[in-house]
């Protein structure tokens, strides 16, 4: 069959189809994707190794969180509980947490940010599965649906994530660090961060969206620096030493500083709101900020087809929805609260019982109108 002439409209259509086919082939140039075939595995062994590290790291984090939770529960059942930091079980959970975070850190050196960051949903779903199996928590229909959606989203993310394989050297990081895209992004991010911090500190606004947006803005800087540090370490092991460049230590300082302030703000959010609210919102905000950081700093979606981006974002949406369903109303499932009865106190009139406050450290307060008791002389005295 003869090829269409250069000026023929059919030639333009054929060129578009060829470009679309190249975008959907992992061996081609650019950020394409394809099916999970044998050729796909051979061409993406490095990315898959990063994905495997991230998934294993998140699962180990899930195990560590449940071990620490079990340690606290067992300590609460003892008549004379010891401090949690003296528990061998609690420390084993901390060690597993460090191993899991190390796996996540290493994963950024082998795969793009836009592929590794959304895999945090595996930590949430894995924690739910372990809680049901070992802590005897209830398995709800929303948990099963959420796990299914999270796994489906993970499949789409792995299959349709960008296929750009970058050797992260010190010169590469320096080039991206002074790029105009990153400069504009950082100016806007610093501006938004300062405005939100002003409302949080000066105006006393402690809404969960404000706190977790501050965390997400710091997280975008964290993932950029983490990938830079991890990538330069990987490049030093596989090719040429990169640890002698000043940019490596600059990125290390940025990584540590952003992590410290991020954890501080996240702790404030967990003190003010239930974990069932903080976990899904933080996962969504963190993933979005990480994806934007990867696109702007490392240009990970450069040359990707529209359908590729759409399916990738749909996979992110499924993972977000799965995390929300798994964590929804989980904190509200607790044992019925007991009441503390004063009993009969001579000369005192007790108007009601005291209900423990499950969200605080104290036993609770008297109901409205019963904050005082009457003596026989009808004089009111504070309880």
UniProtKB/TrEMBL annotation:
InterPro entries: EmrE-like, Mg_trans_NIPA. The keyword Transmembrane applies. Its main location: membrane. GO terms for cellular component: membrane. Keywords: Membrane, Transmembrane, Transmembrane helix. Residues 354-383 are annotated as: Disordered. The chain crosses the membrane at residues 46-67, 88-110, 116-135, 144-162, 182-199, 211-235, 247-266, 278-298, 304-326. It is found in: Membrane. One of its GO terms (molecular function) is magnesium ion transmembrane transporter activity. It comes from the Eukaryota. It holds the Pfam family Mg_trans_NIPA. It is a multi-pass membrane protein. Signal peptide: none annotated. The keyword Metal-binding does not apply. Belongs to the NIPA family. This is NIPA like domain containing 2. It comes from Capra hircus. The lineage of its organism: Eukaryota, Metazoa, Chordata, Craniata, Vertebrata. The gene is NIPAL2.
């Amino acid at each position: 069959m003869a090829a269409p002439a250069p000026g023929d409209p059919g030639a333009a259509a054929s060129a578009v189809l060829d470009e679309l086919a190249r975008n959907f082939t992992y061996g081609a140039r650019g950020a394409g994707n394809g099916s999970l075939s044998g050729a796909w595995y051979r061409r993406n062994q490095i990315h898959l190794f990063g994905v495997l590290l991230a998934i294993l790291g998140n699962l180990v984090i899930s195990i560590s969180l449940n071990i620490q939770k079990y340690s606290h529960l067992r300590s609460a059942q003892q008549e004379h509980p010891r401090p949690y930091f003296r528990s061998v079980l609690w420390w084993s959970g901390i060690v597993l947490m460090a191993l899991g975070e190390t796996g996540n850190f290493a994963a950024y050196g082998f795969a793009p940010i836009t592929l590794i960051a959304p895999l945090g949903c595996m930590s949430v779903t894995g924690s739910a599965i372990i809680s049901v199996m070992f802590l005897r928590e209830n398995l709800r229909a929303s948990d099963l649906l959420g796990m299914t959606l999270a796994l489906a989203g993970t499949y789409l993310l792995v299959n349709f994530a960008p296929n750009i394989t970058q050797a992260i050297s010190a010169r590469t990081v320096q080039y991206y660090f002074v790029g105009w895209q990153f400069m504009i992004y950082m100016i806007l991010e610093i501006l938004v961060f300062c405005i939100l911090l002003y409302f949080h500190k000066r105006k006393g606004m402690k809404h969960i969206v404000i706190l977790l947006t501050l965390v997400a803005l710091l997280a975008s800087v964290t993932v950029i620096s983490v990938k830079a540090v991890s990538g330069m370490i990987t490049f030093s092991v596989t090719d040429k030493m990169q640890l002698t460049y000043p940019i490596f230590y600059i990125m290390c300082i940025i990584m540590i500083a952003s992590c410290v302030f991020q954890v501080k703000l996240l702790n404030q959010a967990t003190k003010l709101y239930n974990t069932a609210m903080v976990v899904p919102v933080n996962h969504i905000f963190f993933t979005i900020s990480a994806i934007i950081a990867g696109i702007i700093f490392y240009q990970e979606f450069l040359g990707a087809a529209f359908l590729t981006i759409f399916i990738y974002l749909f996979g992110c949406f499924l993972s977000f929805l799965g995390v929300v369903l798994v964590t929804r109303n989980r904190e509200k499932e607790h044992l019925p609260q007991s009441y503390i009865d004063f009993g009969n106190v001579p000369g005192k009139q007790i108007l009601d019982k005291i209900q423990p406050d499950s969200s605080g450290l104290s036993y609770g307060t008297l109901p409205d109108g019963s904050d005082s008791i009457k003596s026989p002389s009808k004089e009111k005295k504070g309880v």
